[in-house]
Amino acid sequence: MNVERVTIQFLPGVVLQREVDYFNGINHFLVLDLDGTISDPLTGITHSLNYALHMFGYPEMDENTVAQYIGPPLDIIMRKITNSDSSELISHIIRHYRDYYNRIGYAENTLYPGIYEGLQYLMAKNIPMGICTSKRVDFAEKILKLFQLDPFFSFISGGDIGIQKTNQLRLLVENKIIDKTAIMIGDRAVDIQAAHENGLKSIGVLWGYGNKEELGEVSPYRILNHPEELKKII
Protein backbone atom coordinates (compact mmCIF):
# COMPACT_ATOMS: atom_id res chain seq x y z
CA MET A 1 0.00 0.00 0.00
CA ASN A 2 1.33 3.41 -0.98
CA VAL A 3 0.87 6.32 1.40
CA GLU A 4 0.71 9.86 0.09
CA ARG A 5 0.61 12.99 2.24
CA VAL A 6 -1.97 15.46 1.02
CA THR A 7 -3.34 18.75 2.27
CA ILE A 8 -7.13 19.04 2.17
CA GLN A 9 -8.90 22.38 2.40
CA PHE A 10 -12.64 21.91 2.72
CA LEU A 11 -13.67 25.20 4.26
CA PRO A 12 -12.32 28.76 4.10
CA GLY A 13 -9.49 29.02 6.59
CA VAL A 14 -9.55 25.33 7.52
CA VAL A 15 -6.64 23.28 6.24
CA LEU A 16 -6.38 19.70 7.40
CA GLN A 17 -3.43 17.49 6.62
CA ARG A 18 -3.91 13.74 6.56
CA GLU A 19 -2.25 10.63 5.24
CA VAL A 20 -4.38 9.21 2.45
CA ASP A 21 -3.99 5.50 1.80
CA TYR A 22 -4.37 4.27 -1.76
CA PHE A 23 -5.78 0.76 -1.79
CA ASN A 24 -4.26 -1.36 -4.58
CA GLY A 25 -3.39 1.81 -6.46
CA ILE A 26 -6.98 3.11 -6.46
CA ASN A 27 -8.53 4.88 -3.49
CA HIS A 28 -11.58 2.72 -2.82
CA PHE A 29 -12.67 4.66 0.23
CA LEU A 30 -15.45 4.05 2.67
CA VAL A 31 -16.68 7.53 3.59
CA LEU A 32 -18.59 7.56 6.87
CA ASP A 33 -20.93 10.07 8.41
CA LEU A 34 -20.25 10.80 12.10
CA ASP A 35 -23.43 11.69 14.02
CA GLY A 36 -25.84 8.77 14.08
CA THR A 37 -23.39 6.51 12.25
CA ILE A 38 -20.29 6.29 14.43
CA SER A 39 -21.41 7.97 17.64
CA ASP A 40 -24.68 9.01 19.23
CA PRO A 41 -24.62 12.79 19.77
CA LEU A 42 -28.12 13.21 21.21
CA THR A 43 -27.30 14.17 24.81
CA GLY A 44 -24.58 16.65 23.87
CA ILE A 45 -26.61 18.22 21.08
CA THR A 46 -29.68 18.54 23.32
CA HIS A 47 -27.73 20.24 26.12
CA SER A 48 -25.91 22.54 23.69
CA LEU A 49 -29.11 23.42 21.86
CA ASN A 50 -31.05 24.19 25.04
CA TYR A 51 -28.18 26.33 26.32
CA ALA A 52 -28.29 28.40 23.14
CA LEU A 53 -32.09 28.56 22.87
CA HIS A 54 -32.41 29.68 26.49
CA MET A 55 -30.05 32.59 25.79
CA PHE A 56 -32.51 33.92 23.20
CA GLY A 57 -35.76 33.22 25.04
CA TYR A 58 -36.79 30.07 23.18
CA PRO A 59 -38.27 27.12 25.11
CA GLU A 60 -36.07 24.12 25.80
CA MET A 61 -36.55 20.88 23.87
CA ASP A 62 -36.52 17.29 25.08
CA GLU A 63 -34.31 14.61 23.55
CA ASN A 64 -37.14 12.97 21.62
CA THR A 65 -37.83 16.25 19.82
CA VAL A 66 -34.17 17.04 19.21
CA ALA A 67 -33.61 13.58 17.73
CA GLN A 68 -35.78 14.50 14.75
CA TYR A 69 -33.34 17.23 13.74
CA ILE A 70 -30.02 15.36 13.92
CA GLY A 71 -28.29 14.99 10.57
CA PRO A 72 -28.65 18.12 8.40
CA PRO A 73 -26.32 21.16 8.68
CA LEU A 74 -26.69 23.21 11.85
CA ASP A 75 -28.02 26.37 10.21
CA ILE A 76 -30.86 24.42 8.58
CA ILE A 77 -31.72 22.84 11.92
CA MET A 78 -31.75 26.22 13.69
CA ARG A 79 -34.01 27.79 11.07
CA LYS A 80 -36.53 24.98 11.49
CA ILE A 81 -36.47 25.13 15.29
CA THR A 82 -36.74 28.92 15.56
CA ASN A 83 -38.93 29.37 12.48
CA SER A 84 -36.71 32.33 11.64
CA ASP A 85 -35.04 33.41 8.40
CA SER A 86 -32.83 35.95 10.15
CA SER A 87 -29.24 35.06 9.29
CA GLU A 88 -28.02 37.29 12.11
CA LEU A 89 -30.18 35.55 14.73
CA ILE A 90 -29.26 32.09 13.47
CA SER A 91 -25.57 33.01 13.53
CA HIS A 92 -25.80 34.23 17.15
CA ILE A 93 -27.65 31.10 18.30
CA ILE A 94 -25.13 28.86 16.57
CA ARG A 95 -22.26 30.72 18.22
CA HIS A 96 -23.70 30.03 21.68
CA TYR A 97 -24.49 26.44 20.71
CA ARG A 98 -20.90 25.87 19.64
CA ASP A 99 -19.53 27.53 22.75
CA TYR A 100 -21.26 24.92 24.93
CA TYR A 101 -20.58 22.07 22.52
CA ASN A 102 -16.87 22.86 22.34
CA ARG A 103 -16.54 22.91 26.13
CA ILE A 104 -18.92 20.14 27.21
CA GLY A 105 -21.30 18.82 24.56
CA TYR A 106 -18.82 16.96 22.36
CA ALA A 107 -17.76 14.80 25.33
CA GLU A 108 -21.37 13.74 25.91
CA ASN A 109 -21.29 11.63 22.75
CA THR A 110 -21.54 7.87 23.16
CA LEU A 111 -20.03 5.32 20.80
CA TYR A 112 -22.45 2.86 19.23
CA PRO A 113 -21.77 -0.72 20.40
CA GLY A 114 -19.80 -2.65 17.79
CA ILE A 115 -18.52 0.42 15.91
CA TYR A 116 -14.97 0.23 17.22
CA GLU A 117 -14.71 -3.46 16.38
CA GLY A 118 -16.19 -2.92 12.92
CA LEU A 119 -13.76 -0.12 12.08
CA GLN A 120 -10.87 -2.10 13.50
CA TYR A 121 -11.78 -5.04 11.26
CA LEU A 122 -11.96 -2.85 8.14
CA MET A 123 -8.62 -1.24 8.93
CA ALA A 124 -7.05 -4.68 9.37
CA LYS A 125 -8.31 -5.50 5.87
CA ASN A 126 -6.51 -2.40 4.53
CA ILE A 127 -9.75 -0.63 3.65
CA PRO A 128 -9.10 3.14 3.69
CA MET A 129 -11.74 5.21 5.42
CA GLY A 130 -12.61 8.87 5.79
CA ILE A 131 -15.20 11.04 7.53
CA CYS A 132 -17.72 13.33 5.84
CA THR A 133 -19.78 15.13 8.45
CA SER A 134 -21.88 18.27 8.70
CA LYS A 135 -19.97 19.02 11.90
CA ARG A 136 -17.04 21.41 11.86
CA VAL A 137 -13.70 19.66 11.38
CA ASP A 138 -12.39 20.62 14.83
CA PHE A 139 -15.44 19.16 16.58
CA ALA A 140 -15.24 15.97 14.53
CA GLU A 141 -11.57 15.58 15.42
CA LYS A 142 -12.29 15.98 19.13
CA ILE A 143 -14.96 13.28 19.00
CA LEU A 144 -12.78 10.82 17.09
CA LYS A 145 -9.92 11.39 19.54
CA LEU A 146 -12.31 11.01 22.48
CA PHE A 147 -13.04 7.44 21.37
CA GLN A 148 -9.52 6.80 20.00
CA LEU A 149 -10.92 6.39 16.49
CA ASP A 150 -8.73 8.94 14.70
CA PRO A 151 -6.11 6.35 13.57
CA PHE A 152 -8.79 4.60 11.52
CA PHE A 153 -9.44 7.57 9.24
CA SER A 154 -7.35 9.16 6.51
CA PHE A 155 -9.28 12.43 6.26
CA ILE A 156 -12.10 14.45 7.75
CA SER A 157 -14.39 16.59 5.61
CA GLY A 158 -16.21 18.95 7.94
CA GLY A 159 -19.20 21.18 7.26
CA ASP A 160 -20.25 24.63 8.36
CA ILE A 161 -23.01 27.17 7.82
CA GLY A 162 -24.12 27.05 4.18
CA ILE A 163 -22.08 23.92 3.40
CA GLN A 164 -24.06 20.98 2.01
CA LYS A 165 -22.84 17.39 2.22
CA THR A 166 -23.22 16.98 -1.53
CA ASN A 167 -20.67 19.78 -1.98
CA GLN A 168 -18.32 18.16 0.53
CA LEU A 169 -18.36 14.91 -1.44
CA ARG A 170 -17.92 16.81 -4.70
CA LEU A 171 -14.78 18.47 -3.32
CA LEU A 172 -13.41 15.11 -2.21
CA VAL A 173 -13.86 13.77 -5.74
CA GLU A 174 -12.51 16.90 -7.45
CA ASN A 175 -9.41 16.90 -5.24
CA LYS A 176 -8.87 13.19 -5.97
CA ILE A 177 -9.13 12.24 -2.31
CA ILE A 178 -11.76 9.70 -3.33
CA ASP A 179 -12.97 8.50 -6.70
CA LYS A 180 -16.26 7.17 -8.03
CA THR A 181 -15.63 3.77 -6.43
CA ALA A 182 -16.03 5.27 -2.94
CA ILE A 183 -19.04 4.34 -0.82
CA MET A 184 -20.84 6.81 1.45
CA ILE A 185 -22.19 5.31 4.69
CA GLY A 186 -24.73 7.23 6.78
CA ASP A 187 -27.94 7.11 8.77
CA ARG A 188 -29.98 9.87 7.12
CA ALA A 189 -31.44 10.48 3.68
CA VAL A 190 -29.14 13.49 3.22
CA ASP A 191 -26.12 11.15 3.26
CA ILE A 192 -27.59 8.88 0.61
CA GLN A 193 -28.78 11.75 -1.58
CA ALA A 194 -25.35 13.40 -1.44
CA ALA A 195 -23.80 10.14 -2.65
CA HIS A 196 -26.30 9.82 -5.50
CA GLU A 197 -25.67 13.40 -6.63
CA ASN A 198 -21.95 12.64 -6.89
CA GLY A 199 -22.28 9.30 -8.63
CA LEU A 200 -21.24 7.27 -5.58
CA LYS A 201 -22.72 4.13 -4.08
CA SER A 202 -24.23 4.46 -0.62
CA ILE A 203 -25.06 2.34 2.40
CA GLY A 204 -27.72 3.32 4.92
CA VAL A 205 -27.54 2.33 8.58
CA LEU A 206 -30.47 1.85 10.96
CA TRP A 207 -28.80 2.31 14.35
CA GLY A 208 -28.84 6.11 14.05
CA TYR A 209 -31.61 8.65 13.46
CA GLY A 210 -32.99 7.63 10.09
CA ASN A 211 -35.48 4.79 9.76
CA LYS A 212 -36.09 2.16 7.10
CA GLU A 213 -38.84 4.23 5.47
CA GLU A 214 -36.67 7.36 5.19
CA LEU A 215 -33.71 5.45 3.81
CA GLY A 216 -35.84 3.31 1.52
CA GLU A 217 -37.20 6.40 -0.20
CA VAL A 218 -33.69 7.40 -1.35
CA SER A 219 -32.62 3.88 -2.41
CA PRO A 220 -29.20 3.18 -0.89
CA TYR A 221 -27.18 0.30 -2.33
CA ARG A 222 -27.58 -1.56 0.98
CA ILE A 223 -29.07 -1.04 4.43
CA LEU A 224 -27.32 -2.30 7.57
CA ASN A 225 -29.14 -3.06 10.81
CA HIS A 226 -26.18 -3.30 13.22
CA PRO A 227 -22.58 -2.03 13.29
CA GLU A 228 -21.32 -5.62 13.24
CA GLU A 229 -22.56 -5.79 9.64
CA LEU A 230 -19.81 -3.34 8.64
CA LYS A 231 -17.55 -6.38 8.51
CA LYS A 232 -19.66 -7.83 5.70
CA ILE A 233 -19.51 -4.94 3.24
CA ILE A 234 -16.09 -5.83 1.78
Automatic annotation (TrEMBL):
Record carries keyword Hydrolase: yes
Any one of the GO CC terms: cytosol
An annotated Gene Ontology molecular function: hydrolase activity
Keywords tagged on the record: Hydrolase
Database matches in InterPro entries: HAD-like_hydrolase_sf, HAD-like_sf, HAD-SF_hydro_IA, HAD_2, HAD_sf, PGP-like_dom2
Pfam family, one: HAD_2
Family: Belongs to the HAD-like hydrolase superfamily.
NCBIfam families: HAD-SF-IA-v1 (TIGR01549)
Protein known as: HAD family hydrolase
Species per Swiss-Prot/TrEMBL record: Methanospirillum stamsii
